[in-house]
Design brief:
This protein is an alpha/beta fold. The protein contains 20 helices and 17 strands. The strands form five sheets. It has a seven-stranded mixed sheet with strand order 4-12-11-10-9-5-8, with helices on both faces. A hairpin with a 3-residue loop joins strand 6 and strand 7. Helix 2 packs parallel to helix 4, helix 6 runs parallel beside helix 14 and helix 7 crosses helix 12. It binds pyridoxal-5'-phosphate. The site of pyridoxal-5'-phosphate has 15 residues, from helix 7 and strand 10.
């Protein structure tokens, strides 16, 4: 075909193309209508390019057309939600789905997806049941509370408590606890949404018992304490403990609700992590309701759990909002086996994925970094320098923000300033079949290996050869050696 004379009339017909062997094969893989639609869209694009004088005559060859159609079909067949490698150094990364769940949860979710289940059926009585009942007993046992309910997330838990128990009345909260949690959870906004009147007391850094006592009155519906999980105020500070507020709330006949956020079910200091207040502690100190997340320190699925006095939990369940915020069978299926693991705390570090990640020995991380370093250096070639280096991970999601976990990983820099672009590398790592997500700091790409499971190490290492900047490098470096 002569480039000068190529015109739209030279595009092969749809019928002819459909009978090309390559397209026949695609038809048996994707079905006739998908192939036909994709082929037509591709030919239309070619036609426009030809009219604009921008088409390569080779693009009209049936084989080239078949390859283009095959690539388009493969791209639309690929699912959007994909596994990635979290090398960000943040273990509970909200953008990456927070806690990873243990196998027991995976199996239970698989069962619930493929079988009818007793979600709202009381198997003993044969009557309609309450879905909370699937996990309520375990939650009560683990926290010392009388009753429990589960909603979509902790933000929903706070919204439900406020809306069901305090609508159109006042909720007293310390100015130092009017928090914003990442992703637009702002306490004053939630209060407005719940139709609650916010009664701020104290100052940003100091709130005293008398501030609460003076604000309490006939309009008060609730005292709310919020765990300031994602920041710390240092210096001249004062706040009032749950143990001091509980008797005050009781005297006035209003509930004391606590939003704990990260919500540890067990004292993590026994494994050398900082001592975070547990849900059981807060219940024991006299809180009437305690709300916390399922996918933060608990290590379970996204959920908002509320435990506390039976009479208050009953009111929450009776609210129409509870129906709107309720969790699916998949969440309950995943949550129950995670809670069950807590019955045997000594074994949690092996069995609860989150705890295993938080407690990985530094030596194991260092060995992993040293094993991987040459395997990453080789495909990257001479433009980049890869080092095994110490770094520090954080728990994330506002849990223990001050605490740094000594870690190890790969530190990648441009070998010389004018060579290898880190921005291009970071983008190429995101475009891999299983994207690798690190953190750029101080002109280096940091890949923290804390969340790279040993079983995933091979899959991680083998992908680097697919990077555009790896073309030819692996071969060259093997020849060199
Ligand atoms: C994280 C957090 C929330 C929000 O929890 P989600 O489960 O993400 O909705 C609310 N309050 C506090 C104190 C938190 O730390």
């Amino acid at each position: 075909m002569d480039a000068a004379r190529t015109s739209a009339a030279d595009i092969p017909s749809v019928d002819r193309l459909l009978n090309e062997p390559a397209l026949t094969a695609l038809r048996s893989e994707y079905g006739r209508s998908a192939v036909l639609d994709t082929l037509r869209a591709h030919l239309e694009q070619l036609r426009r390019a030809l009219l604009a004088g921008a088409a390569d005559p080779m693009a009209l060859a049936p084989d080239t057309i078949a390859t283009a159609v095959s690539e388009r079909l493969a791209a639309t067949a690929r699912l959007q939600l994909r596994a990635v490698f979290n090398c960000s150094g943040t273990v509970l990364h909200t953008h990456l789905g927070r806690a990873l769940l243990p196998n027991e949860a995976v199996e239970a979710v698989g069962m619930a997806l493929t079988h009818p289940v007793n979600l709202e059926l009381d198997l003993k009585g044969g009557r309609r049941g309450e879905r909370d009942a699937l996990v309520e007993e375990r939650l009560c046992e683990l926290t010392g509370a009388e009753a429990a309910t589960v909603v979509n997330n902790d933000a929903a838990a706070v919204l439900l408590m406020l809306s069901a128990l305090a609508a159109r009345r006042e909720v007293i909260i310390s100015r130092g606890e009017l928090v914003e949690i990442g992703g637009s959870f702002r306490l004053p906004d939630i209060m407005r949404q719940a139709g609650v009147k916010l009664r701020e007391v104290g100052t940003t850094n100091r709130t005293h018992f008398a501030d609460y006592a003076q604000a309490l009155g006939s309009k008060t519906a609730m005292l709310l304490k919020v765990h300031t999980s994602n920041y710390v105020i240092h210096g001249f500070t004062a706040s009032v403990a749950v143990s001091a507020l509980a008797p005050l709330a009781r005297t006035h006949g209003v509930p004391l609700a606590v939003d704990l956020g990260s919500g540890a079910l067990i004292d993590l200091s026994r494994w050398g992590l900082p001592a975070e207040v547990t849900v059981r502690d807060v219940v024991a100190l006299g809180a009437d309701l305690v709300a916390f997340s399922g996918d933060k320190l608990l290590g379970g699925p996204q959920a908002g759990i509320i435990v506390g006095r039976a009479e208050l939990i009953r009111k929450l369940r009776a609210s129409p909002l509870k129906r709107a915020l309720r969790v699916s069978k998949l969440v309950l299926a995943a949550l129950e086996p995670v809670l069950a693991l807590y019955r045997w705390p000594e074994r949690l570090p092996e069995r609860l994925t989150l705890l295993r990640q938080l407690l990985r020995p530094l030596e194991e991380l260092q060995l992993q970094a040293q094993r991987l370093r040459p395997r990453i250096q080789s495909p990257l070639g001479a433009d980049f320098e890869v080092l095994a280096a110490p770094m520090s991970s954080q728990i994330g999601s506002g849990a223990l923000p001050q605490h740094e976990l000594p870690s190890y990983g790969l530190l990648i820099g441009a070998a010389k300033p004018q060579r290898g672009s880190l921005t291009a590398l970071e983008r190429a790592l995101r475009a891999l079949p299983r994207p690798i997500l690190g953190r750029v700091a101080d002109q280096k790409l940091q890949l923290d290996l804390r969340c790279l499971d040993l079983a995933d190490e091979e899959a991680f290492a083998s992908q680097w050869a697919l990077l555009p900047m790896a073309r030819g490098n692996s071969r060259r470096s093997t020849e060199d050696s």
